[in-house]
Specification:
Blueprint: H1 2-11, E1 17-24, E2 29-37, E3 47-49, H2 54-62, E4 66-68, H3 80-87, E5 92-100, E6 103-112, H4 122-125, H5 127-158, H6 166-182, H7 184-187, H8 191-200, H9 213-216, H10 224-231, H11 233-247, H12 254-264, H13 286-301, H14 312-324, H15 330-337, H16 340-350
Antiparallel strand pairs: 1-2, 1-6, 2-3, 4-5, 5-6
The structure holds fe (ii) ion (FE2) (2 copies).
């Protein structure tokens, strides 16, 4: 994004800020994603329902762009986003909704400190940057959809019905995002990282598609030997991710490392007692710690054939016990605990059936 902005600045020095917000259709939320600007603390880690902004909803419905010549002349009270822009000295803006196959997936915002900057031909000249933004975001979105799609097909073909249900994946990926947001200040994560954790969390168990039905679907307890084979789902998953990424020509991109770490480390406890590598402490990537906690929390709070669902309080108490034993990252557990309202909203939205 910085590169793209620098490039745009060469020809259009009046474009002082470029930002992309993503639209999450599942939660009907608009969220900050990436930005490049000349202010010290850019707007980030911010989300709100798209419906809360009537002007953006209109742009999405009409599929049109919007130029605001002077933000200061908009009728009061100003929307939060407008207020932020004005407080940071921006005066004019150009907004473009982003679509793929007719479906909204975000907005790109160009802002200038000069009033009327986008009134002339500039908005047309910026189309090339709109397309570049669009393509770079779609790359990430399509990649994760492609991998999820492959997993779904593999699951369906093999009738591996109880690998994990869609609802478990919806809940645990949403919990993962809450945790990633909560610890973002401590670890210095931006919106992009948080989004990638959310997008890739559902892939944690993809390696189970390679485990034989006789073990995966076995109703009773597994033997020691079977348990070892089951543990192989982690390395199988890493292999699958690597092959898919390599085939897609995306083997060395930054988000592949988050995807890989989610799959590779979702059973690694911080005290070294996890598998398959027995990593400990900082060797367990934060995305692995986050997904592990989200996965355990969902397993505890939902009903399984062998157990009743635990209350959120009991599940959190258990997570704290695991922190005390050195297995989990206490900052990540605290982030989940601090988001009680959001946790309940996720459970309401996606139900609590396993
Ligand atoms: Fe797993
Ligand atoms: Fe899971």
């Amino acid at each position: 994004m910085k590169w793209l902005h620098e490039h745009a600045l060469l020809r259009h020095p009046e474009v002082h800020r470029i930002a992309i917000a993503l639209y999450d259709a599942r939660h009907e939320l608009l969220k900050t994603y990436v930005n490049s600007s000349d202010v010290q603390h850019p707007m980030s880690l911010y989300q709100k329902p798209l419906a809360a902004s009537s002007s953006l909803t209109e742009l999405a419905t009409l599929r049109s762009t919007r130029v605001i010549s002077d933000l200061a002349s908009l009728p009061e009270p100003h929307a939060e986003h407008t207020r932020w822009l004005l407080e940071h000295g921006y005066r004019s803006s150009f907004t473009v909704p982003l679509f793929q196959s007719g479906v909204l997936f975000g907005f790109v915002f160009f802002d200038s400190r000069a009033p009327g900057a986008f009134d002339g031909a500039l908005s047309l000249d910026l189309q090339i940057y709109v397309q570049l933004c669009r393509m770079s975001v779609l790359n990430v979105i399509n990649l994760s959809h492609a991998v999820e799609g492959i997993v779904k097909v593999a699951r369906g073909l093999a009738h591996l019905r109880d690998i994990e249900t869609g609802r478990h994946l919806d809940r645990m990926s949403s919990y993962s995002r809450l945790i990633a947001r909560g610890v973002s200040g401590h670890f210095g994560f931006g919106d992009e990282f948080i989004e990638h954790v959310y997008l890739f969390a559902p892939l944690h168990d993809i390696g189970k598609v390679g485990i034989a039905d006789s073990i995966l679907l076995k109703p009773g307890k597994l033997t020691d030997e079977e348990r070892e084979i089951m543990k192989g789902h982690v390395d199988l998953g890493v292999q699958l991710v690597d092959e898919v990424m390599q085939d897609a020509g995306l083997g060395s991109t930054e988000y592949v490392s988050v995807m890989r770490n989610v799959v590779r480390c979702h059973h690694e406890f911080m005290d070294g007692s996890g598998y398959p590598r027995g990593l400990s402490g900082d060797a367990v990537p934060v995305e692995g710690r986050i997904v592990m906690i989200a996965d355990i929390f969902d397993a505890l709070t939902t009903e399984r054939p062998y157990k009743k669902p635990w209350s959120n309080e009991d599940a959190l108490a258990e997570l704290h016990r695991m922190c005390d034993a050195g297995k989990l990252d206490p900052r990540c557990v605290a982030a989940l605990e601090d988001s009680g309202d959001e946790v309940r909203a996720i459970q309401q939205k996606f139900g609590l059936n396993a």
